[in-house]
Design a protein that fits this description.
Blueprint lengths: L3 E2 H8 L2 E3 L5 E2 L1 E2 L9 E4 L16 E4 L1 H4 L6 E3 L3 H11 L15 E2 L4 E2 L4 E2 L4 E2 L4 E2 L4 E2 L4 E2 L4 E2 L4 E2 L4 E2 L3 E3 L4 E2 L4 E4 L4 E4 L2 E4 L6 E3 L4 E2 L4 E3 L6 E3 L4 E2 L4 E2 L4 E2 L4 E2 L4 E2 L4 E2 L4 E2 L4 E2 L4 E2 L4 E2 L4 E2 L8 E2 L8 H12 L1 H18 L1
Parallel strand pairs: 4-5, 5-6, 6-7, 8-11, 9-12, 10-13, 11-14, 12-15, 13-16, 14-17, 15-18, 16-19, 17-20, 18-23, 19-24, 20-25, 23-26, 24-27, 25-28, 26-29, 27-30, 28-31, 29-32, 30-33, 31-34, 32-35, 33-36, 34-37, 36-38
Antiparallel strand pairs: 1-3, 2-7, 21-22
């Protein structure tokens, strides 16, 4: 169990300490669930009433909310960001592997850095390079000529194809596949002719990829995921997609081939981006949105309809089909009105 005093946390966070700075913190929790020895946080003032009842030993608070709390506190500019940093410090997640398991198969041409751990039944292919302190979970496969940067972690059963480069401090969760073939075919009189996908995949530093996500290799040039990108579970990234730094993509989303997503974008869950499109830096796309044309200016974009009773939805669907007729009738009325003037 990790242990840290309130004073030490205050120094780590550059926070103002209110109360007993010798207090020992062992973990983090919500205001509602916290017990003695735990640190909680208040990120939204509408939950301020929970401060009175919390059993947390200390709370991360903004300057404004600290005025309403008499207990031990760390006063910071952004309590949620501070909570994330403390959670990292007290993280008890086990390592994916310790040492090199006897059942792992490591090609003699692979270059293995200092402190690398490789789990049971993992396979490391020819000419692979693993940086220092890389962790390869049980059952992973790292294909020929791939490179994995220092301190990157692969959870169990991740598959990395050939010629995939992954940067430093990345996390790839279980059953994700990186470098599979893109969906590239030519059609000859109804017959599909496969186009070999000879590009690779390039992931930057501090990238996190969720479980069961697929990232296809490029057809000729590379598929690129830049620094700081976070991708949720069950996301499909097609060949030659480029995703700019610090963009976030929520679960179940699909990015079709050769599209470029800008920097600092947020793409809600279940969204779909058509192929060969560009999305401007800083764009927010609501969950379930279908993007079928370029977005040149940042903003919030949405397309999914809200859930409603089936009876109402059926009636509205009929009306939707009548929009073209309604539009033409309105145009005709406008013409008639102008004729009367």
């Amino acid at each position: 169990m990790q242990k840290v005093t309130l004073k030490e946390l205050g120094q780590q966070l550059a926070a103002k300490i209110k109360g007993d700075d010798t207090l020992v913190i062992t973990s983090v929790a919500t205001l509602e669930d916290a017990v003695q020895g735990q640190l909680s946080f208040l990120a939204n003032s509408k939950y301020r009433a929970q401060l009175e009842a919390t059993q947390a030993s200390a709370v991360l608070l903004s300057e404004k909310d600290a005025e309403c709390y008499q207990g031990n506190a760390l006063i910071v500019a952004d309590p949620y960001v501070a909570f994330a940093r403390v959670a990292q410090l007290l993280d008890t997640t086990p390592k994916q592997a310790v040492g090199i398991h006897p059942s792992a198969q490591v090609d003699p041409t692979a270059i293995i850095g200092e402190g690398v751990a490789i789990g049971a039944n993992a396979v490391i292919g020819a000419k692979v390079i693993l940086g220092e302190h890389v962790q390869i979970g049980a059952g992973c496969v790292v294909g020929e000529s791939s490179i994995i940067g220092s301190h990157t972690r692969l959870w169990a059963n991740v598959t990395i194809y050939h010629d995939v480069h992954i940067g430093q401090q990345c996390i790839v969760h279980s059953s994700t596949v990186i470098g599979s073939d893109g969906f590239g075919y030519a059609n000859e009189r109804g017959n599909w002719i496969k186009i070999p996908q000879t590009g690779g995949v390039r992931l930057g530093n501090n990238v996190e990829i969720g479980a069961c996500t697929s990232i296809d290799r490029g057809a000729l040039s590379h598929t690129e995921i830049h620094d700081g990108v976070i991708i949720d579970n069950q996301v499909q990234i097609a060949h030659n997609v480029v995703i700019g730094q610090n963009t976030a993509i929520a679960g179940g989303s699909i990015i079709a081939g050769s599209s470029t997503i800008g920097k600092y974008c947020i793409i809600g869950g279940g969204s779909a981006v058509a192929g060969h499109l560009s999305i401007a830096d800083g764009t927010h796309i609501s969950g379930g949105t279908n993007v079928t044309s370029e977005i040149r200016e940042k903003g919030i974009y949405s397309s999914a309809t809200i859930a409603m009773e089936n009876k109402l939805w059926r009636r509205n669907t009929v009306r939707f089909r009548q929009l073209d007729d309604l539009f033409n009738r309105v145009k005709q009325l406008e013409k008639s009105a102008k004729g009367d003037e």
